[in-house]
Amino acid sequence: MGGIFSQQAHDTTPSASVEPDSKPKKKICCACPETKKARDECIVENGEAACEKLIEAHKICLRAEGFNV
């Protein structure tokens, strides 16, 4: 049974190595404040359906910052 535990430890190690390769340097909540503000204000005032262009602009900005959205 000792082999099973050591195998499980090896199985979890590669997933931990994925994070350091990630590109974002900021938290997603702090990235793209200009597009986030415009998007949020539009959604509150007009509803999500009316703000698709601002939503997409914010997603583009987040992707440029390295987020996978």
Describe the structure.
The chain has a domain at 23-69: Helix Hairpins, CATH 1.10.287.1130. It starts with a helix and ends in a 5-residue tail after the last helix. Helices cover 61% and strands 0% of the residues. It has 69 residues and is mainly alpha-helical. It has three helices and no strands. The chain is elongated, with a radius of gyration of 19 Å.
Map the helices and strands.
Blueprint (H helix, E strand, L loop, with lengths): L1 H15 L16 H14 L5 H13 L5
Helix pairs in contact: 2-3
* Tally of DSSP helical segments: 3
Largest sheet: none
Oligomer status = single chain
H/E element sequence: HHH
InterPro entries: Cys_alpha_HP_mot_SF, Cyt_c_oxidase_Cu-chaperone
Keywords: Chaperone, Copper, Disulfide bond, Metal-binding, Mitochondrion
Subcellular location: Mitochondrion intermembrane space
Binding site for Cu cation: 29-30
